[in-house]
Design goal:
The chain is an alpha+beta fold. The protein contains nine helices and 23 strands. Strands 1, 2, 3, 5, 8, 9, 10, 11, 12, 13, 19, 22 and 23 form a 13-stranded mixed β-sheet that branches. Helix 1 packs antiparallel against helix 7 and helix 4 packs across helix 9.
Length: 447
């Protein structure tokens, strides 16, 4: 664990902004490769700079981060003229999927945050020094970040230029396609013994882009193409996830669970509306419904001890994305007080992660089998990514449909599939390529 608890006091100033002054929404601020990002439908949070950082590894990474954050904001001096979720002290975070991973989980406290929510926009400046925080000073600091030499031009309002296809090289990651399909077959064999019900297996590929990899360009492409997903960027981890692990606002917690996937290209040439095809193939599939039911049960069982009331869709709905359709369910819970206080985002994540949607069930058996079969340290892939504020609000997605930028021209992409008794290795491999597509498109790579 690094970043000892601060003896200095953090100070923050939040002032309103005119949302009409940036008609493209938050994507218009995605102009730096070191930007911190959490956006959906042009709203969310964007951060610049860094005034504090926490890192940890191991099984207690969430609880250690929770303690660090609560101590950091306990005596914070907060001036907040907006007062809504995401104002005041804020940290962006990314956590390793596995408790055994050497990858460092992290919370990052930025210097500047721009927020947009329900038509309201704001600017927050955060500091530990004795400099007086003023409206004019905060706006000047924002200008320094977005107008510095080397920043990219802001995209046009409501869109971004489609990147031309580039000559990129895709190379095998930890396993070849044949080796990964063999791992899927071994997973199915284990499921048939009754040792587990579901297993989620991931694979990676490495893209080498001669023209260079820019985080800002990737994030802008994803934010516009995948508006219904949550686009995230933290320390070179970039992506656009359709799955919300936990969203907390006051005492209300919500989650979006996905399990069951259909490539939209499978509907090409079919008679009738594509959505009807998706409903027939996904909702009508015993395999897909079984996989989805396992994922829902996993989340609701773990969330129940923290809740005094909970409801979920009785029937999953079809989530329509540009690359795939998913079976999806939304879960909503009213949080109960535990030992005199409402549980924090990170305490909930500690209880919920990993869900069956990204690991399998039972999780201990699935986790051990993942380590045996994948030959891969997932790092932050399929781990929680998002933000939290001092009031206990936050949004944490699962880092899916994403990649890690490893060098100026190199990026490692990840994708995974839920494996159940009826899984066919060739079909699961095809599903991974459908899930790679958002990142490949954002890099300008034909898929």
């Amino acid at each position: 664990m690094t970043s000892a608890l601060h003896t200095r006091i953090i100070r923050t100033l939040t002032v309103p902004l005119d949302a009409e002054s940036f008609p493209g929404g938050l994507p218009s601020f995605l102009v730096r490769d070191d930007v911190l990002c959490w956006t959906r439908r042009e709203a969310g949070l964007v951060g610049f700079g860094e005034v504090a950082r926490f890192t940890a590894t191991g099984p207690d990474r969430f609880l250690e981060a929770d303690i660090w954050w609560r101590h950091l904001v306990l005596e914070a001096e907060v001036t907040d003229a907006v007062d809504c979720p995401g104002t005041g002290p804020v940290a962006f975070g990314s956590f390793a999927f596995s408790k055994t991973s050497a990858h460092e989980s992290r919370l990052i406290v930025p210097e500047i945050v721009v927020g947009l929510r329900d038509g309201r926009a704001w600017l927050t400046q955060l500091t530990f020094d004795g400099v007086e925080l003023t409206d004019a000073g905060a706006r000047a600091a924002l200008r320094r970040w977005v107008e510095a030499p080397g920043t990219a031009a802001a995209p046009p309002p409501g869109g971004t230029a489609v990147r031309p296809a580039v000559e990129a090289k895709l190379s095998t990651g930890s396993l070849s396609e044949a080796e990964w399909m063999a791992a899927v077959a071994e997973g199915v064999a284990e499921i048939r013994t009754g040792a587990l019900e579901k297993l989620v297996l991931a694979r990676d590929v490495v893209a080498t882009v001669p023209d260079g990899v820019t985080a800002a360009g990737i994030l802008r492409e994803l934010a516009v193409r995948y508006r219904e997903c949550w686009t995230y960027g933290v320390d070179g981890l970039v992506g656009s996830t359709p799955e919300m692990l936990i969203q907390v606002e006051g005492r209300t917690a919500q989650a979006r669970v996905l399990a069951g996937t259909l490539d939209r290209r499978d509907a090409e040439g079919m008679d009738g509306p594509p959505l009807e095809f998706a409903e027939r193939v996904l909702a009508g599939s015993e395999k897909q419904r079984h996989e989805h039911d396992i994922a829902i049960a996993s989340l609701t069982t773990q969330l129940a001890p923290f809740s005094e009331a909970m409801n979920a869709h009785s029937e999953p709905f079809i989530l329509e994305l540009p690359n795939v359709w998913h079976l999806a369910s939304d879960v909503k819970a009213e949080l109960a007080e535990v030992e005199g206080h409402v549980p924090t985002c990170l305490a909930l994540i500690n209880a919920l992660h990993p869900t069956a949607a990204v690991c399998g069930t039972p999780t201990t058996v699935a986790g051990a089998l993942i380590r045996k079969l994948e030959h891969l340290d997932r790092g932050p892939y399929a781990g929680p990514v998002g933000w939290l504020d001092a009031a206990g609000n936050g949004e944490w997605g699962i880092a899916l449909r994403g990649a890690v930028i490893e060098g100026p021209d190199t990026v490692r992409l990840y994708a995974g599939c839920g494996v159940v008794e009826g899984s066919v290795p060739e079909a699961e491999l095809a599903e991974t390529w459908a899930k790679f597509r958002p990142m490949l498109e954002s890099l300008g790579i034909s898929s």
